[in-house]
Design brief:
Strand order of the largest sheet: 1-3-2-4-5-9-10
Structural class: alpha/beta
Oligomer: single chain
Order of helices and strands: EEHEHEHEHHHEHHEEHHEHEHH
Helix content: 25-40%
Distance between the termini: 30 Å
Strand content: 15-25%
Number of strands: 10
Largest sheet: 7 strands, mixed
Radius of gyration: 18 Å
Number of helices: 13
């Protein structure tokens, strides 16, 4: 149960937004850099003393993904960050894979968390979660969403080209102009030869898709107050998992807005913030 990391590497990246309220940590999703969430972070920082650790995939000079495919490494990054850089316990807020890894961190170190807000935590059925452990990564890379991720360009000639791609991508159809502006600014970073590369490398994004867990038993074991938030059901968070969660964890506060999808925090940051605030108001 001990944390294997004494401190974060020197290339780790995080942000503090020194507000006057409760200490909060936000953990973002796979495939998006922390800056893409700037609109939502702006809402949160006005009420909370907000911190946010960026995924190690986006740290400078991170290299290729590790051989291990489970997500505990990212939960341990979060534990190390909270131990060394935050006033604990915090309200742990996470989206998608960030929510799932916040669950893993909270089960391992419940003393670091006051409560959790879990927005569309990425997970698959228990049967599939057990099955994919035995399927080689090269085979999982032939299946969506890893396959589509590996097909997209890593390098772009300019921000405008990346922006045009985002505008046409079906998965981003609900994003508003503010969200697209954040995508264009933070979704790519400038290279030494004046081109632009994805800020969240596609090799890491696809790698993370190849062994998604099921964390329903972890949720059942948690004794921390939890808020669950969802948009419209998707392959990342299904109707069946939502209903199972309600059955197995009746003390959890459940909120939803079906006008948006899995990317609710990016599609409508204001609505997402209102759901977070409404959920937490039932505890505090």
């Amino acid at each position: 149960m001990n944390n294997p990391y004494k401190k974060l590497p020197d290339n780790a990246v995080w942000k503090h937004f020194k507000g006057k309220g409760e200490p909060v940590h936000f953990y973002h999703a796979n495939g998006f850099s922390l800056g893409v969430y700037s609109p939502l972070l702006g809402h949160l920082s006005r009420k909370f003393n907000l911190s946010a650790l960026a995924w190690r995939a986006t740290w400078p000079g991170v290299g290729m993904p590790p051989k291990r495919r489970d997500w505990q490494i990212y939960a341990d990054d979060l534990i190390t960050f909270l131990e060394g850089h935050c006033d604990v316990p915090v309200i742990g807020i996470g989206h998608s894979m960030g929510a799932t890894c916040t669950i893993l961190a909270a089960e391992k170190r419940p003393d670091l968390f006051k409560s959790l807000v879990l927005i569309e935590p990425a997970m698959i059925s228990n049967f599939l979660a057990k099955l994919v452990r035995f399927i080689p990564e090269r085979l999982m890379n032939r299946i969506e969403p890893a396959r589509g991720t590996l097909r997209k360009p890593e390098i772009w000639p300019d921000r405008e080209s990346y922006f045009a791609y985002c505008k046409k991508f079906k998965g981003y159809k609900r994003l508003d102009n503010e969200a697209f502006d954040a995508m264009a600014e933070y979704g790519v970073v400038k290279t030494r030869d004046n081109k632009f590369r994805l800020s969240f490398p596609k090799s890491w994004e696809a790698h993370n898709y190849t062994q998604a867990p099921n964390v329903m038993e972890n949720l059942e074991r948690l004794k921390i107050p939890c808020v669950a938030i969802r948009g419209n059901p998707s392959i990342f968070f299904t109707e069946a998992i939502w209903k199972e969660w309600q059955t197995r964890c009746p003390a959890t506060v459940f909120k939803q807005d079906l006008n948006y999808g899995h990317l609710l925090p990016l599609e409508n940051p204001s609505t997402c913030y209102d759901l977070i605030d409404a959920g937490l108001s039932e505890f505090y």
